[in-house]
Predict the 3D structure of the following.
Amino acid sequence: MNTSFAIETVGLNYRFGSQTVVKDLSLQVPKGSIYGFLGPNGAGKTTTIKILLNLLQSSSDKVFIFGKELNSNRTACLKQMGSLVEQPAIYAHLTGKENLINRCILLGINQRKVAEMLALVGLTSAANKKAGKYSLGMKQRLGIALALIADPELLLLDEPTNGLDPNGIIEIRNLMIELAGKHGKTILVSSHLLAEIERTATHVGIINKGELLFQGKINELHDLSKPVIKIEVDDSAAALNILSTTGAEIIDMDEGLVKIAYTGKAEMGKYNSLLVNNGVTVYAIYTEKKDLEHLFLDITSKN
Ligand SMILES: Nc1ncnc2c1ncn2[C@@H]1O[C@H](COP(=O)(O)OP(=O)(O)OP(=O)(O)O)[C@@H](O)[C@H]1O
């Protein structure tokens, strides 16, 4: 298996009864990346994350963590992973610090790590407050500190900003950037909102109904949202013939409509004259740029 990936799944499938929830899913999460795992509600994100954590069983040879097959190297793989799935497992009657000490005792880790983790997630001043009194954002950050205490290389965060206010969202976002940037962690973070992870993610995987619809660098996703020229004409076949002689990149064609890649205003004028001079009636010519949120909706509504 490719060892440049922190996570690799190969044609992964998963069913709940007769419902296939994960379909032929091949994820490739590069080491050191912040991988935004995106999809609408019910797309199969949590199920996939639970499979990656071996909380749900996959078939052998489908899931690889840092190149090791998960089922046959369960302990070694899990040691490399920290996670926050659904609600963080926090004792409300203990302080943040006590929660972390408790986890250290449980895992046999030196308690010196506690102060470091509190500082990392920005909870030093709230260390002696009961966790039950924490805000939602503070609870999430404590959850991340608990996930990080054993110093895993890979962090799986399932919708960590769910229910947080804008400040809480920014705090989690900055924490992820710091963890990947300064501490070299690989982070897989799920969300149903592209906007929430757009600024943090280096890579993106988009799923819907258990199927992977897009996977790549965030820049590649941005490229898909580059502007196009839409030309409304009386005869699209004739227009296509004429435009194809110019070397223009034809993107799509429909009855009365041709879409080509936008390369500049001058070219746009040139295409217009060329069509008119060759007997094609141009009703309208304009550019259109999809913002990422629309692109995401487009991608996820196609299947
Ligand atoms: N334990 C279960 N038993 C049966 N079906 C389940 C179970 N858990 C999840 N599902 C179904 O599997 C599908 C995927 O759910 P999953 O929670 O993985 O999606 P998700 O992308 O994480 O969605 P959300 O953003 O709402 O959490 C849904 O149709 C859900 O109803």
